[in-house]
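Let us work through a complete example step by step.
Step 1: write down the sequence.
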Amino acid sequence: MTESLRNSGEYENPYQGDQQYAAAPVNPEWPPPPAYAPKKRRRGPVALLAAVAIVAAAIGGGTAYGIQELTGNDTVASSSTSTTVVPSSQKGTVSGVAKAVSPSIVEISADSNAGSSTGSGVIITSDGEIITNNHVVSGASQIKVTTNDGKSYTAKVVGTDSKKDLALIKLENASGLKTATLGDSAGVGVGDQVVAIGSPEGLTGTVTSGIISALDRDVTVSTDESQGQEQGQGQGQQGGEWPFEFGGREFNGDTGSDTTTYKALQTDASLNPGNSGGALIDMNGNIIGINSAMYSAAGASSAAAAGSVGLGFAIPIDTVKADLATLRAGSTN
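Step 2: predict the structure and record it as tokens.
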């Protein structure tokens, strides 16, 4: 026997309208028919876990990409996770990193009473804020910057921090520049592949690659402005490279008495004079360090001087990000 409900919700006698049983009385003691209500679909553990997974995925993906968006000209594209800047079709390739990041790397030419120098820099805002090494622009009376597409700008020093060998300069009358994405150097590990981009010996946009050789190297550099020329003329340094100390030994000349020490990333990516201030990049296209010091075999025998010796150092990008507000405030430390 089946039961049904009318649209009004009244009970309908299943025999009503049947001629055979039309005279049969309905037992008044029958209990009322059960009320049929739509069953609610219960969300079990599987459904809940699926919902949580979807939310987590949305947050993870949204954070990685949303954090890149610029909300203003003075906002740095930064990532606390591993943001993928390189197109997926070229992910993990040196050529992919070079294509994605090279437009954000510049060549810096600085003139001072001590001579002239050539270094590199990283664009961090679309209106021309650029991070570089302090020793590249220290004491400069005139700064010229050339972007990857060949355009030239004049620049002014905004702030310096000789203790960290960092400087912030700003291009004049610049807009619409492609900015780099600052990554997370705390997540870098020994053996990670990296790419270096800069202007060694004035060769703009030179790309080299290698690995992270070591972490937290104590590198000591000079804070003396008179030595602040990457390719100085009349500096008396071997090949004009920036002098530094490591493990109690001096490299590329005398660092002088006024020095500072910082924790550096060590890389075997080929670095040469002019790479200072340029970018050390992970394979997703994030800037993880600012190249700052490199050992040169200049002055040794010609055989020993040939090729890269694979000893380069970079300031971790987390150090740069922590110092950025101070540099923007016009620090001259």
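Step 3: interpret the result. The first strand starts at residue 4 and ends at 5.
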